Amino acid sequence: MILQIINSGSFLPEVTGIVAVAFSLKGVGIATAIVAAVGLFIGLFLGFAAKTFEVETDEREIQVRELLPGANCGGCGYPGCDGLANAIAKGEAPANGCPVANKEAHKKIAEVMGTVVEESERKVAYVKCSGTCDKTEVKYEYYGVQDCKKVALVPGKGNKKCIYGCMGFGSCVKACAFDAIHIINGIAVVDKEKCTACSSCIAQCPNKLIELVPYSARHLVTCNSPEKGKDVKAACAAGCIGCKICVKNCEYGAINVENNLAYIDYSKCTNCGKCATVCPVKVIRVQQA
């Protein structure tokens, strides 16, 4: 009877289905094994690579980074606070390399590094221009993009007749993360109490008007024009005419005129104020200590 059923072929579909399922399960098992083996290999490889190419982090770098303010302004000359922390840990930057951090933070960083902080006077930015709206000549009314670097590419460098002074479009203001510089009466003015000397404003000024000076400096030459006196006066009522009267009256050799423009050597300046007193165009500004 059984032989007759087999011979008749009615049993073949059932047998074929069972065999197909068996082969299917076997294929899934093989695929699973292959995937598991590949995963295991990759895991072992990554673990070996991580161990082999592991970069050891200096514990001091972590401690220094925690003491930095996190401003990431770039004023230290490194790519953010992480870059400075790395440089300090390697001995490539001083403990007081961050211009934003205060003296207490510098002292703690020096303790981490086992060094002593080199005492140096705090510096602040100042803008070498007195060409306010009431003192500088205007060539035309300007309507356009408010960006000093872009306006500097326009023939004439903006609407002011003096092409060496502050354009007043506020690129430096936008760059300052500490609200230490503002446009007042057409020119940039620095609040030295807020300034951290990060130099962000300096990098944004196309006319190179902004410099760092000692915090204690009380006398500042607020002009940047190298033109001769006649041409300076034709453009601005508050420009240095290169008369050298300040030079002749300084008893300490702290002021000099180069390219028709006065410069103060703050390492020699005693803040006596005589240069500001004798300046005929009052371009040497006196600021409170």
Describe this structure in words.
The protein has 289 residues and is of the alpha+beta class. The protein has 2 domains: 59-113, Electron transport complex subunit B, putative Fe-S cluster (3-methyladenine DNA Glycosylase II, Chain A, domain 3, Orthogonal Bundle); 123-286, Alpha-Beta Plaits (2-Layer Sandwich). Helices cover 38% and strands 11% of the residues. It is built from 11 helices and 8 strands. It has helices at residues 2-8, 12-52, 59-67, 80-89, 103-113, 148-151, 171-175, 200-204, 229-235, 245-249, 274-278; strands at residues 123-127, 181-184, 187-190, 210-214, 219-221, 255-258, 261-264, 284-286. The strands form 4 sheets. A two-stranded antiparallel ribbon has the order 1-4. Strand 2 (181-184) and strand 3 (187-190) form a beta hairpin. The chain is elongated. The chain starts with a helix and ends with a strand.
